[in-house]
Amino acid sequence: LAAAMAAAKVGDRVILVDEQAQVGGSLLNEPVEGGATIDELSARDWISQSLARLAEHPRVTIVTRATAFGYFAHNMVGVVERLTDHLAEPPDGAPRERLWQIRAREVLLATGAIERPLVFPDNDRPGVVLAGAARTYLNRYGALPGRRVVVVTGHDGAYAAALDLHRAGVEIAAIADVRPDPAGPLIDAARRAGLPLRQACAITGTTGANRVTGARLGSDFVACDALLISGGYTPSVHLFSQSRGTLVWDDDLQAYLPGRSAENQRSAGACAGRFALAEALRDGDLAGSAAIGAAPARTYAVQALTAAPRGVLGALPHDRGPGAKAFVDWQNDVTTSDLKLAVREGFQSIEHVKRYTTTGMATDQGKTSNLNALAVVSDALDRPIPQVGLTTFRMPFTPVTFGALAGLARGDLFDPVRTTPMHHWAVTHGAVFEDVGQWKRARYFPHGDEDMHAAVAREGLAVRAAAGIFDATTLGKIDVVGPDAAEFMNRMYVNAWSKLGVGRCRYGVLCREDGFVMDDGVVGRIAVDRFHVTTTTGGVARVLNMMEDYRQTEWPDLKVWLTSTTEQWAVIAVQGPTARDILAGLVTGIDLSPDALPHMSLAHGKIVGVPTRLFRVSFTGELGFEINVPADRGAQVWDAVWATGQAHGLTPYGTETMHVLRAEKGFIIVDQETDGTATPDDVGLAWAIGKAKRDFVGKRSLARPAMSDPARKQLVGLETVDPKVVLEEGAQIVATLGGAPPLALIGHVTSSYASATLGRSIALAMIGGGRARTGQTLYSPSPRGDIAVRVVSPVFYDPDGARVNG
User: What pLDDT digit, counting tens, does each position of 695-725 carry?
Assistant: First the structure.
């Protein structure tokens, strides 16, 4: 609150995040009367006044019931705000939670400290309560922890709880202080109140069944119905540690404190080891002022009984008596015996002890157990705590729901749907869609009662006889730009790019470091320093990530920039013998003649007045063009092409027909013909590898003898002996029939279709030593019976490639 007021006073934008429903932190635990005062105001009145002042500032946002669960790089803090009770149905479908992603110029951590339990035999009985928790129950909620209470402490803070309970009429049976000579204002106040104080007194056990009924203090038994304990306070440094700040051990406090910050961050108050109220206010005021470069806004007149900062750590007997258990981690039931066993088993680092015993691995991330566990292990190893180590404080700081992190990603929004600019046209023309990546793609366009096979047959014949129009917008598109663009492409792709002329295209193959095919696509050289790279629909993200990885980490010296342009271009493929005739009257500024715009070339001009990047490419084996136009003009151009094409037999076709057409030409689809273990040569693309290239991603791996083994699976075509039989995709292939199982499998079918153009079934397959088996008869075991197939070239249609040059 002090920091927020200091920053707000000069107009800084401030977001105050408080995990509790009420702002005020530990001040809320002060009694209404007789508690701490600030500027002659009670703690609660000071809170109210401070909040009223902050409310006057329009640039101050206060977010309550909100957990700062993670502190990330570049001063980003993740916050989950709880808007409603999780058990209650939110009104009118309102959200239960809100996820804040806050990136701040400066972060102030005032995360306080967590009271440290004491470790002693039988400390897990109901009714054993932290002294600070008892004070909260009393002063904040009006609830008594018990009627006759024993307090066991190694810290002055527990005396405040004892005094408050005494004033509320609770009998304080004993205050057992493990320290030999406790002194200070709170101890003096307890003596003046006549509370029974025992110095240098340890607790050795408890009694009770359903709840605690008594405590053994030394050799005495004291009856009670609640036992309050306090071993001091552990600064809450979880968020600071998550930000990669360095922690330092403080011998006086017996705790880790924030050291060197990794972010523009400050820690104030108890989380920095300064527990007194006056110190916390000064910290906040100074930090808030420093954040905006101003002098401290004010000082505070504070009256409070100061609690000594030093607590007790590892000073109590951990085990006493047969069968007694002294719990260190109450969530995972880890005792001192478990920790000592871990040491005897040879574990010395606290990280190893943690995993052996599971201490500190529960939902509280060791908030109440870590320091005591360190003390036990330190004692067992006879080493100082800093030499034992410190476990990692991982997020979340406190548990958050999966729903908060997932946000709106549920139901229909779980997997966002991406549609092309021509999607509405496809819907109105009866397209049946399929999901490809996150895209909705038209699979086929049935007429009347046509099923998919009939529609695909009709569409395929139309493309071969006249022309087809196809929405290829979903292809990945990446601009590779810069003086070193050609060199970058040379290093990434197996092909050579330096001599590719401006306005020309080349089919590119991309491998991983292991030499296996990762992606492919047509690449056009737009200028000396610019390439238009296309990728598979589902592969663009991984290709761009791979390119960026190499650009930033392997070749940072190259002057090249990568930009994803997938959404910027709508792509309309017009394929078939009449494609040129359709476009002739629509395109201006581009000579469409075969000599001016040959296969695998590109040009810039306009189509129906819209700027276009026109590619002369084909994935069907027919004369083909791919029209690239700005995405927001895609539907306009599509409508114009469709209207003009009606006189030339233009037919819309979908992805299923596209698959049949490309398979007839033996064109592969990455992740269908390839499975992550196929080299370019395996799928018939050895011709694409630049033989004179010094290096490219995967080149070293391709040089291994195993990668050129003639027995490797290779892409071949298959024709069933019975042309009406269509193989199942994924069907296994064997060389001979009969014999005892298991069968000697030599390959599998990757693609299989009924080709209306060829009047028979066709299939592509990956077969061991496949090219050498051309002409052989092989078999595909099937529940319908063994199917005989002949190995043929994977190019079933127009093997000389004459039609593409029409």
Answer: 999 999 999 999 999 999 999 999 999 999 9
The predicted-structure confidence for 53-102, as pLDDT tens digits, reads as follows 999 999 999 999 999 999 999 999 999 999 887 667 777 777 888 999 99
* Whether the Cβ atoms of residue 301 and residue 38 lie closer than 8 Å to each other: yes
**Cα separation of 126 and 319, whole Å?**
19
Residue 680, SS3 per DSSP: coil
Edge-to-edge strands, sheet with 624-630: 587-588, 601-607, 610-616, 624-630, 569-575, 467-471, 650-652
Token pair belonging to 126: 């109901």
- Residue 169: φ, ψ to 5°: 95, 5
3-state SS string over 488-554?
Answer: HHHHHECCCCCCCCCCEEEEEEEECCCCCEEEEEEEEEEECCEEEEEECCCCHHHHHHHHHHHHHHH
Rounded to 5 degrees, φ, ψ at 566 are -55, -45
Scored b (16 or more CB within 10 A) or e, 158-172 reads bbbbbbbbbeeebeb
For tokens 């019976």, the residue is 785
Q: What is the pLDDT of residue 417?
A: 87
Query: What phi and psi, each to the nearest 5 degrees, are found at residue 280?
Result: -65, -45
Of the listed ranges 152-166, 239-253, 727-741, the one predicted with least confidence: 727-741
- Distance CA(347)–CA(144), nearest Å, equals 43
Give the pLDDT confidence score for residue 306 in this predicted structure: 63
DSSP state for residue 26 in the 8-state scheme: G
Query: Using one digit for the tens of pLDDT, what is the confidence trace for 391-410?
Result: 888 888 888 988 888 877 77
CA distance 290 to 296: 8
Rounded Cα gap, residues 260 and 249, in angstroms: 12
Is pLDDT at 316 greater than 60 in this prediction? no
Residue with tokens 């329009």: 58
Instruction: For the beta carbon of residue 90, count every other beta carbon within 10 angstroms.
Output: 13
Tell me: the pLDDT tens digits for 518-534?
999 999 999 999 999 99
CB 682 within 8 A of CB 488: no
Phi, psi (rounded to 5 degrees) for 788: -85, 135
Average pLDDT of the segment spanning 547-573: 97
The two structure tokens encoding residue 362: 């529960």
- How many whole angstroms separate alpha carbon 5 and alpha carbon 38? 15
Q: Is pTM beyond 0.85 here?
A: no
Count of CB atoms situated within 10 Å of the CB of 778: 22
Is residue 144 predicted with pLDDT exceeding 60? yes
User: Are 103 and 220 a contacting pair, CB within 8 Å?
Assistant: no
Helix, coil or strand: residue 176: strand
pLDDT mean over 175-201: 95
- The pLDDT of residue 315: 47
CA neighbor of 234 nearest in space, from 136, 116, 316:
116
Helix and strand totals (H; E) in the chain: 20, 44
pLDDT reported for residue 364: 85
Task: Identify the three-state secondary structure at position 483.
Answer: coil
801-804's contacts with Cβ under 8 Å and 24+ in sequence apart are: 801/621, 803/577, 803/621, 803/622, 803/623, 804/599, 804/618, 804/621, 804/622, 804/623, 804/624
3-class SS at 282? helix
> Hey, what amino acid is at 633?
R
CA separation for the pair 215, 202 (Å, rounded)? 10
Question: Does pLDDT of 325 surpass 60?
Answer: yes
Q: For residues 1 and 110, is the Cβ–Cβ distance under 8 A?
A: no
- For 621: left if phi > 0, alpha if psi spans -120 to 50, otherwise beta; the answer is left
| Mean pLDDT of the residues in the chain | 93
> What 3-state class would DSSP assign to 16?
strand
Q: Is the predicted pLDDT of residue 359 greater than 90, yes or no? A: yes
